[in-house]
Design brief:
Elements: H1 2-39, H2 50-72, H3 91-99, H4 103-136, E1 144-145, E2 156-157, H5 158-190, H6 195-249, H7 254-282, H8 285-290, H9 292-302, E3 307-312, H10 319-340, E4 345-351, E5 356-363, H11 376-386, E6 390-394, E7 401-408
Parallel strand pairs: 3-4
Antiparallel strand pairs: 1-2, 4-5, 5-7, 6-7
Helix pairs in contact: 1-2, 1-4, 1-5, 2-3, 2-4, 4-5, 6-7, 6-11, 9-10, 10-11
Length: 411
Amino acid sequence: MQQRLARGATILTHLAAIGIVGPVILTSLLTIAVTAIPLVFVFGIGLLLVPLVAFGLRGVAWLETERVSALLGTESVLTPMRRSQRTDGWRVPATVGLQFTDRGSWRALLHLALISALGCALLGLVKVAGTGIVLLLSPLFSARITASVWWLPTDLGVGAAAGIGAIALLLAIGLSYGLIVAHRAISAQMLVPDREAELARAAEASAQRRVEAMHSAEVERLRIERDLHDGVQPRLVSVGMTLGMAKGKLASDPDQAAELIAEAHTSVKSAITELRQLARGIHPAVLTDRGLDAALSALAARSHVPVELDVDLPGRCAPQTEAALYFAIAESITNVAKHSGAQRCRITVRARPNGSVWARIEDDGAGGARTVPGGGIDGVANRIGAGGGSFALISPVGGPTTIEVNLPCAS
């Protein structure tokens, strides 16, 4: 019982505070927005106010989401701030614009408006309760009430005053409880995660990851088949033919046979090297033994295009995360060397505070890269998606090309 009373008192305190602060916030945002619109046509001055509205909207979303999650003891549903993936000079304006497309921020703004109305109603009820207490205690101080209190008559007897005071106090308490219930109901509907909806989203995301994993496996299988068919297989066929010729010459021309055997030996060593490189592209041993930093260093050292590597990871991630990230970077470096005409490539890998690992691959090439079904970039996107991560490609014609991937560190 005491816990319920304390929780109710806390909600009433929140309502009273929002009843005071909420209208100020809403009025400020509305004033800035209304002021910005006409000033846009005055040398574009209004454009300077647009970021204030955008990030003010984001601030309201943070305030209401965190306040409600702490008040009701639920999990916060605040999504990370949306950021543009552009790499040119329009990245900041695009990020500002994305804030206006976030439905969660608009929902939080509507929530603040509704709770502010409830808070203002509570402040009115506080005045009603105060009046009721004064009237209820009036017999202790005077035989009659002669001062006008709101809508009450100017001359009341003691009994009438006490009765009206009791009714006013009970009404204020009852309506205040109604405001508590209304606050909980509105917040639960708007800002508390719906368990059924969460399960539906999780099932949808799991199905999408399964499709992406199957697509990624198919692309990887085709790549391995292509590399074997175009590289190792012809070389091994050539070795077999060379050894056959050497066998035929062994009795009649031993010197020629020795040359053919030496040629076959060289071809076998080349085939072994190609097989090692192919295995390295799937999952190099150094990745398992020494981690992502060492594996990427070895990858950068073998690249035909100079690679500037900047890796800052506090520890190891899950093996599947490291493998997916290594594959994404290896495929990107291959594309840079084959198609971009770039003079340099920069790779940045960082651990994020939310428990994910983020990587950016940039080059100064000609740009124009596109995701083609079954192609290398498509394989990277599906591999990252299968791991529950995000993939972004920005490659305007003329360059530069930037790929950003983000993966949960633990799977």
